[in-house]
Design goal:
With about 450 residues, the protein is an alpha/beta fold. Helix content is about 35%, strand content about 25%. It is built from 14 helices and 18 strands. Strand 1, helix 1 and strand 2 form a beta-alpha-beta unit. Helix 5 runs antiparallel to helix 12.
């Protein structure tokens, strides 16, 4: 399900053009916008023609706390109007929307809408406002709307970090104020003990135990390990729910195996299959990357490592130690729980992920600046040859080029992956936010 956003939409006009036709198109446009999935439209009833009307519309949008601003040039119009709207919503992503010209009536251009877009873009650009996108056509650019969903979701996010980043993973470190400045997300810290001591009622643990037995072959772990995993699933779910967390990044080793008795991989696999956003190894930006995918309606994002590249066969192995959502199983291999990791205390999920088109994203920071690494790939069939969760992926370019892009730009070794193609909305989100795109 896509993240719900509020869009402020104003249709601009000028009485020297065909405002009657523009009003008809405005009414039809509002009906079409109302049908968009999980979008709340905030709009004046009539065209905005005079500067004072633009200020009233701007006040309406500001009070409504819209996530995105759509400035529709119903006809050509005064240059004041877009500037008044932008002034009230300085950091809000904007779309300048032009309508196709209507058939000429008596030799006179009726709308001159595209020229209105040009005027607005020039005024905004020369005023230092660069977070706008433009589109010409009869319908709104839904990829831009989806890009707004990404930014709105991150802005509303509360991300928990349990423990700290994993030992030695300096590249996953973040400065909480920098995260807030770039995305609006608030990062809160929790001790691992707060998870381990959270309530785990016997009935809920029993329910989770039966759930694990129904999904996985659990013959490779002990009854005590299965009980610990089941209880941990209950506890993680409880903490995220009661703390109101959008996502949680967990320091999953070395303390979990040593002090709790099992690593959290299998618990995370199950909860992620139910829609929880859980990031390995204290990776806050990885969690934000997963939230970006989820905002677009992508199902059960998860983090992977570029664990292997085969330059001769031209593929990459997307692997992690056993945390991928169990609903993404390929349907062919045996899904099992295993203890190969952390000296026999791993309790990881083991299976091959299903085939299909993939979207990859990593929100990553360096020198206080944010950038977005994005790629498309395709998961292809492979045998179950390893422990952990993994897939064989081919890019639409040589894998050596992708690896070079990652390594030369110092991109962190985790990225979020989902099934589907979401690159254009992510590009538009990055453009609105002022993030560099690396692809």
């Amino acid at each position: 399900m896509k993240y719900t956003v509020r869009l402020g939409v104003a249709c601009l006009g000028r009485t020297t053009f065909d405002v009657a036709a523009a009003r008809i198109q405005w009414a039809e446009t509002k009906k079409a916008l109302a049908a968009l999935e999980n979008v709340v439209i905030v709009a004046p009833d009539d065209l905005v023609i005079e500067p004072d009307e633009a200020r009233s519309a701007a006040d309406l949008f500001a009070r409504s706390r819209v996530d995105g601003l759509v400035i529709l040039s119903g006809t050509f119009h005064l240059g004041h109007l877009a500037l008044e709207l932008a002034k009230a919503l300085p950091a809000t992503p904007m779309m300048l929307w032009g309508l196709p010209e209507l058939p000429y009536d008596g030799g006179k251009i009726r709308l001159n809408s595209v020229c209105g877009v040009n005027l607005n873009a020039s005024n905004l650009y020369k005023s230092g406002v660069r977070n706008y996108h433009y589109a010409i056509g009869p319908s709104i650019d839904e990829d831009w709307v989806d890009g707004v969903r990404v930014l709105a979701c991150l802005k509303a996010a509360r991300v928990g970090i349990a423990g700290y980043r994993a030992h030695g993973f300096f590249n996953l470190s973040v400065a909480d104020p920098a995260v807030y400045r770039a995305t609006g997300a608030i990062v809160d810290h929790y001790e691992l003990d707060e998870i381990w001591s959270a309530p785990a009622p016997d009935a809920e643990v029993a329910r989770r135990t039966e759930q694990y037995r129904s999904i996985f072959d659990v013959s490779g772990i002990s009854a005590d390990q299965l009980a610990k995993v089941s209880a941990l699933a209950v506890r993680l779910d409880y903490v995220m729910e009661t703390k109101g967390l959008s996502a949680m990044a967990i320091r999953c080793w070395p303390e979990f195996a040593g002090r709790y008795g099992v690593s959290p991989c299998a618990a995370m696999s199950l909860l992620q299959s139910e829609g929880r956003v859980l990031a390995c190894e204290g990776d806050v930006e990885g969690a934000l990357s997963m939230l970006a995918h989820k905002a677009l309606g992508a199902e059960t994002p998860f983090l992977f490592d570029f664990s292997q590249v085969d330059l001769e066969e031209d593929f990459a192995l997307f692997w992690h130690c056993g945390v991928a959502p169990c609903n993404l199983w390929d349907g062919r291999c045996v899904r099992s729980l295993d203890t190969y990791f952390a000296g026999g205390k791993g309790v990881t999920a083991d299976f091959v992920l299903k085939d299909g088109d993939l979207s990859i994203v990593r929100l990553d920071s360096v020198d206080g600046k944010y950038r977005l690494f994005i790629q498309n790939a395709r998961a292809v069939p492979m045998e179950k040859l390893l422990k952990g969760t993994y897939m064989k992926a081919r890019f639409d370019r040589p894998v050596a080029d992708v690896l070079d892009l990652v390594v030369r730009n110092g991109i962190a070794h985790h990225a979020s992956v989902v099934y589907g193609d979401y690159l254009r909305p992510l590009r538009l989100a990055a453009s609105a936010a002022g993030w560099e795109v690396i692809e």
